[in-house]
Specification:
elongated, eight-stranded mixed beta sheet, alpha/beta
């Protein structure tokens, strides 16, 4: 026999005061009586064993004490085959939400959880188990223990998430848990993974110590697998890209909509016919303001996994940039800056500006510090360049050749392609004393835009004047000016806000449920029930993975809402619920075992002993 809490035997020391109290009670007391004849007759009629009844009662109380203490020590039979050790790994990623179309049967996660309950029910009292879950994060809900109440409570607390499967990390964590063994336990153990099999690299997890229990179902699912919203250089517009995919085995006809919270009807609507395994992309412009909620919605009817049919994001703001305009007065520059969605603010002094524009300077004693855009300089800049005069011929736009990041065949903002049928003014010719690179040039070899570095900031030089020729009146001039300012500030990715002909955009445009965010204060989900993730203290940054689809509010240290983030399920791995990992599934077939522990029997025996003492001694039934 073994004991789960052998330290409880210290309570047997209570036997000492019990024995002392009985001996005190057995002591004779002197009493004065008028006659003893009646007492003599009473004593002669008492049974002979009655003189021992106090001693018997004491022994009965001691026996009850021993039984109660033994029950508290959690007695159990020693296992003939040795105690088993199991680690149950429950996949709670997004694909586990899937259910069978047209059926009210439980989801894959619920079926796996029911299997986990059956596994716990089949364990013996000496067996130990642990419970892990794995989505985007691996969590240990309960370490190795033989406390079945604790295991049941831990399993009940495991909930499905919208994260991505990370079974490799979970299996490694389970192996580390199995490496911690108690004295007398045999090394090793078994890892039981309950999943739907929608993960990759399962062959790397195949091992003798891993047992797979796979639950699958109807895999018909369509999903929004990509959604991006980016500001572009147009007035009050955003570029969007959305991708829809069919992960089922049959063709699907779905309606795709792009919606804005401030719009009364859908901005874009189209019925898509998706073949099995096919994905289609759509991109365009959204008329909206910063902070507007933009949504991509797939109306797919019956779908096995609905969490990936909608993606949302907040239109990102364009930060305000202060610009100082020096040199020759030109009305075209402030007009162009005002046309770019109010992003730029003109200030008077260069030392308070983020970037400075110097228009056609006739004399240059020194250039101000910071990022600069110099337009058609007509003077030397000491230590930077020498002015060699103006070219004899004007440059025509159809002779432009893109050399750097400003040109290209971009669909939304390829500046060189937009400047067609324009006659520029005479370009200036400069001889640089510092290394400079040509950003945009004519096909004849004349540089039109150059850039070079200096310690005080980058300098971008536009060799053609703004007010001469047709440039200032062209619709693409604000875009060109914005690109020049961005380059001067050090933004090398000049087309970061654009969607090219293939629809590619920066992955940072929309948050997904595998995104790790940094915050100060706390994060609060808008789900039901709401969850709040708090930073360890008011001054420390905290990191969290958004494992739940929907809105997340960032709260400052005074619990005021600062901003709202939207997490989306944008994972082909999780949406492809029809995929199958190459592992063998072995269902759990061991019968459940009785959960009554030996301590119950010891406790009952103690109660019976106390009842017998009360009945036969205190109540005097046998007298």
């Amino acid at each position: 026999m073994e004991f789960g809490s052998p330290h409880q035997f210290v309570w047997l020391l209570l036997a000492i005061p019990v024995v002392l109290l009985y001996f005190v009670a057995l002591g004779r007391r002197r009493m004065e009586l008028s006659t003893v004849s009646l007492w003599r007759r009473a004593l002669t009629r008492r049974p002979a064993w009655s003189r021992w009844r106090r001693l018997v009662s004491m022994l009965v109380v001691l026996a009850a004490l021993v039984l109660l203490v033994t029950a508290a020590a959690e007695p159990r039979f020693s296992a003939t085959g040795g105690a088993r050790r199991l680690v149950i790994v429950l996949d709670n990623s997004a694909s586990m939400r899937a259910g069978d179309i047209g059926d009210i049967a439980p989801s894959r996660f619920q079926r796996c959880k029911q299997d986990a309950e059956r596994i716990l029910d089949s364990l013996r009292l000496v067996d130990r188990a642990a419970i892990l879950s794995t989505g985007s994060l691996t969590r240990i809900h309960c370490g190795l223990t033989s406390d079945h109440v604790l295991l049941d409570h831990a399993l009940e607390g495991v909930q499905v998430t919208d994260g991505r499967t990370n079974l490799a990390e979970a299996v490694e964590t389970a192996r580390r848990l199995l490496g911690e063994q108690l004295a007398g336990e045999a090394p090793g153990g078994e890892i039981i993974v309950l999943s739907d099999g929608c993960f990759r690299d399962a062959g790397l997890l195949a091992a003798d110590d891993v047992r797979w229990i796979i639950h699958r179902g109807d895999g018909a699912n369509v999903a929004v697998t990509k959604f991006e919203v980016r500001p572009n250089a147009q007035l009050g517009r955003y570029d969007y890209l959305v991708e829809a995919a069919n992960f089922g085995r049959q063709p699907r006809e779905v309606e795709l909509r792009i919606e804005a919270q401030t719009a009364s009807e859908a901005i874009f609507k189209e019925t898509l016919t998706l073949a099995p395994g096919q994905s289609q992309r759509r991109f365009g412009a959204v008329p909206g303001l910063a902070g507007d909620l933009i949504s991509a919605v797939l109306d797919a009817g019956d779908d096995a996994l609905a969490r990936d049919n909608v993606a949302r994001c907040v239109a990102p703001p364009r930060p305000t940039i202060s610009v100082a305009v020096l040199g020759k007065t030109s009305g075209a520059i402030p007009t162009a800056l005002a046309a770019i969605g109010g992003r730029y603010q003109i200030v008077a002094a260069a030392d308070s500006a983020d970037v400075t524009i110097i228009n056609e300077p006739a004399q240059i004693a020194s250039l101000p510090a910071g990022p600069l855009v110099v337009v058609a300089p007509a003077a030397d800049a000491p230590g930077l360049w020498r002015f060699r005069g103006k070219a004899q011929e004007a440059v025509v736009a159809d002779a432009l050749g893109a050399v750097g990041g400003l040109g290209g065949a971009g669909r939304f903002g390829g500046v060189a392609d937009e400047l067609t049928d324009i006659v520029f003014g005479l370009p200036v010719e400069l001889e640089y004393e510092a290394p400079a690179r040509v950003v945009l040039g004519s096909r004849s070899g004349s540089p039109l835009i150059t850039a070079f570095e200096r310690e005080q900031g980058r300098v971008v030089v536009m060799h053609v004047p703004i007010d001469a020729g047709d440039l200032a009146q062209h619709a693409a001039f604000p875009i060109l000016l914005e690109r020049l300012l961005a380059m001067a500030k050090g933004d090398e990715v000049d087309e970061r806000d654009e969607v090219d002909e293939r629809g590619e955009v920066d992955e940072r445009g929309t948050l997904d449920t595998a995104t790790t965010v940094r915050y100060v204060g706390s994060l609060r989900s808008a789900g039901n029930p709401a969850r709040t993730l708090s930073a360890p203290d008011d001054s420390a940054d905290a990191f969290a993975t958004l494992e739940e689809v929907g809105a997340w509010e960032t709260l400052d240290t005074s619990q005021q809402v600062e901003s709202v983030l939207f997490a989306n399920l944008l994972s082909s791995q999780e949406s492809d619920i029809d995929s199958a990992a190459d592992v063998e599934s072995r269902p759990w077939d061991e019968p459940p075992r009785a959960r009554v522990s030996l301590w119950v029997y010891f406790a009952i025996a103690a109660l019976l002993v106390v009842a017998a003492d009360w009945t036969f001694y205190r109540r005097g039934v046998l007298e």
